[in-house]
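TA notes, week 10

Several of you asked for a full example with nothing omitted. So below is the full record: structure tokens for the whole chain, then the designed sequence directly under it. When grading your own attempts, check the secondary structure regions first.
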């Protein structure tokens, strides 16, 4: 191939478009000096490279828009667009391309500047052809390594993203399954006690809202919601006449009701994927001051989810009608619970509950409707 650019033209000629995109090691030489273009072009072609030469920056950028080059050899000092400008723009067009600067001795600082804009190396004029050959091989090898490394990194990133997405999907499917199983259990249980109807779902929603208000992370919020659905599942093991008893419970009956935590745990314990949800359910009748059950845990020894559920549970129980009493107004309920903040209830949890229920109009209870 002849050096079609040993002319003063700033544009590559039509014949250059014939250069194929297939495997050839294609190089671009940008230099305003014709003798250099001719000499370097001839030498590199003799080494098996496919070479395009242009005499100015704009022509180089135009060539880069049309074709891919493995390497660009670019003069630092040229009339019009400087070598540094060409490098800066060329690196944007094709970030894979290796770039080497051709520089006179007194241009060395400019060549160094070009390095920070994407050039890989620079060669000092007059150029020894053997040095040029080695530098070109080095640059092409480095380019191959960089591309390979980037491909490996991209593959790893894609693999990790894919795995994460799969895991998220599995997690979501498991959560949906757990909630639907929980809801069928809860429906069976709540069917025995008209006063409990809807209690578990309300505790789940209120518990999740409190957790969100406290700034807990999304996973914890969802785990508290699941625990809310499940917290009273053990009540299916409690005798109906006690659940619906209009008067006060005897000590024996109260002890029997307390058993719902143990029974509930026996039901859900095999569901190992529930993780912290199990603790939250276990702790929903623990009191912050240690006076609760089943373990009499105190303060932060009670799981945070357990403390949140305890507050949501107490709020919902007081706001709902029970066999043994009517419902309380929201203001009265909050007054009673405020008194328990720092005692039976975690004060921080109560504060969040108060903020949530005070601004939510959704928390209306059937008993609020005038009858
Ligand atoms: Fe309970
Ligand atoms: Fe409950």
């Amino acid at each position: 191939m002849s050096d079609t650019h040993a002319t003063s033209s700033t544009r590559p000629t039509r014949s250059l478009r014939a250069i194929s995109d297939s495997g050839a090691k294609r190089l671009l030489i940008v230099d305003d000096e014709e003798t250099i273009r001719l000499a370097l072009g001839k030498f590199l072609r003799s080494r098996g490279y496919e070479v395009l030469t242009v005499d100015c920056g704009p022509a180089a950028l135009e060539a880069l828009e049309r074709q891919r080059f493995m390497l660009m050899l670019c003069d630092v000092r040229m009339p019009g667009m400087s070598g540094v400008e060409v490098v800066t723009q060329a690196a944007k067009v094709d970030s894979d391309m290796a770039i080497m600067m051709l520089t006179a001795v007194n241009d060395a600082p400019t060549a160094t500047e070009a390095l920070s804009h994407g050039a890989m190396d620079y060669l000092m004029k007059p150029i020894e052809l053997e040095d040029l050959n080695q530098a070109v091989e080095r640059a092409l090898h480095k380019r191959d390594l960089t591309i390979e490394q980037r491909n490996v990194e991209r593959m790893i990133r894609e693999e990790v993203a894919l795995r994460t997405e799969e895991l998220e999907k599995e997690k979501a499917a498991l959560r949906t399954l757990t909630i639907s199983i929980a809801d069928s259990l809860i429906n069976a249980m709540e069917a025995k006690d008209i006063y409990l109807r809807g209690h578990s779902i309300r505790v789940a929603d209120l518990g999740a809202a409190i957790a969100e208000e406290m700034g807990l992370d999304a996973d914890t919020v969802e785990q508290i919601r699941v625990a809310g659905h499940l917290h009273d599942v053990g009540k299916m093991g409690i005798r109906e006449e006690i659940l619906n008893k209009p008067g006060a419970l005897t000590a024996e009956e109260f002890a029997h009701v307390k058993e719902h935590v143990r029974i509930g745990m026996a039901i859900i314990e095999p569901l190992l994927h529930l993780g912290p949800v199990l603790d939250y359910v276990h702790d929903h009748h623990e009191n912050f001051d240690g006076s609760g059950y089943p373990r009499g845990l105190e303060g932060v020894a009670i799981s945070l989810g357990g403390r949140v559920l305890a507050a949501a549970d107490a709020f919902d129980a007081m706001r709902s009608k029970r066999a043994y009493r009517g419902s309380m107004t929201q203001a009265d309920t909050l007054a009673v619970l405020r008194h328990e903040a720092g005692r039976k209830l975690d004060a921080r949890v109560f504060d969040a509950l108060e903020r949530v229920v005070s601004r939510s109009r959704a928390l209306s209870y059937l008993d609020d409707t005038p009858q």
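The CA atoms of residues 30 and 54 lie 5 Å apart. Use that as a sanity check on your answer.
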